[in-house]
């Protein structure tokens, strides 16, 4: 037993560093590590053998990461011909595929790609094989502090590419059994109001869940119930176990064996995992279940912590990149929290003797309180908030989903084709889901956005349990009070009294949003882009402001184009009192014209363009603002183009000097003329750009022009969020990819300059 637990610890210690490495070493370095491990293994000391296992596991993690990066190096620069199997599709224009060969050569391991907005010539379904000519685009996500890390997510999902399909030819038109099953269920449930939720629970197909339903699940803290994960796989295993036990009732006594229900439970869980499309959380749950079965068959009693460690080690050996997955950490820490809670805070024995209608609600309430308290740190870190109504919602929702909806759903899957019975089973599932959503809708909006100051305080749940169980409040009362006060103090903002401030260019894709920060207050220049169903403020700016506990006071909209004003309405809904300046002459907007001056937080703002008359619109009507603290100066230019640049230079050559310039018009050839660059005579140029944009910005010629004039070039596509820390005449630029969070999975993958 000790050897097994020691082995599990070595596996985990060896693979965990994959989360924080800044780069993955070359293959020869990995080979050298394995040689070192073999040498350590021959040293006749137990610790050396454990060290050898750690090094081997570390090498395996590096090799897996190296394999995930290999396609970027080989196939990202030009169109390639691939053969792929369709794994998921909406039957229209959004498809997920598994690449099995490239340029006629089979590959291993295979990898996944996503294609959006592509209609294929023939009907498409999961299981088909296609030969395609595709342009593979390495995953690239917007990168902001506290924002969703789409690059890490894509690598954890083993889907490192998006694809633009140039041509496609169907090799096999046969759909998979799962696709036929899905089609059958879609047909039976077509008229049911909650079909989208049913398909999410049965097959992991969540595209049919409406935004309103997703928002209600999020606010009530019950979204985890609608994603096939460990709980659902365990329920399927339980159903398989029960069916096997029922079947054993017909067996003679000498034919009854305890292994049969265990094996049946694993088979049932495997079938449900397959129906879920083999999504990573379901696969991880299945691996854990198999490990538990193997341990159970050893014929000895294993503690919860031992099983937990073995499951983590088994999952990481199977897939080292699981350490990059938030859902992995949520799952394993949820299990750890449950083990810890039941060991350290068990219910009184009197509850076990209470009547069943009192006992079981108390059991459920006790469970939900433990989950809420102990998972709060991870909830805040990942989701930047908690649901205040989650306790009450889950007390109702968990038993309803676990003991009613999922068993009925599994019966519906088996009996879909049964006349009358199949339809009525799905109708019953729909009615119970309607009951659930009706109850959830009666709860108040319980979602509470929490900023990063509360991360330390959220650990109080764990500490309270330890303090209570060890009676530390009696023996070390002063220490306990001091600890709690120190945690509470972490939530208090301490504003700096010096002259320091920050300029942050957020990574909003194609668009612009620059935040000037001083004493916890924010002045925002432009608000990013908007698109059907969302905007940059909802996706990036507001979550970033909330996470950093910043208060927005003023906004400048440089001009009327959507990629610069797209998030304004969302910001005004969040902060109705913000002051808006622009050259648009819109109602409620203060003027932003040449000659305007104002102060904010001791910073001086001077508008250099456009003139009040004649009226300028479009890019050349951009409000150009010089911001200065008396030492440091930054020029904010919007999308101003060469014509307006030259007009602005007349009689104002001297006042345009700045340390940093925001590159006009995202680095377009129509802007950033040499006269402007000489007049500004700055040190650095910051451009807000998006990788794979349709306009091929920034222009290579413009980048070289800045560099030839002595500027250091930065852009958000390459660097992610850019932060300038300013203190009097000293300032420093930090990029999120290179300085703030240099991780191997944050790097720019593929060719060095790919902006089209």
From TrEMBL:
Topology of the protein relative to the lipid bilayer: Multi-pass membrane protein
Family annotation (CDD domains): ComA-like_MBL-fold (cd07731)
Listed GO CC annotations: plasma membrane
Domain of life: Bacteria
A UniProt-annotated Pfam family: Competence
Compartment annotation: Cell membrane
GO molecular function, one term: hydrolase activity
Biological processes, Gene Ontology terms: establishment of competence for transformation
PANTHER family documented for this protein: DNA INTERNALIZATION/COMPETENCE PROTEIN COMEC/REC2, RECOMBINATION PROTEIN 2
Name of this chain's protein: Metallo-beta-lactamase superfamily hydrolase
Species, as recorded: Buttiauxella agrestis ATCC 33320
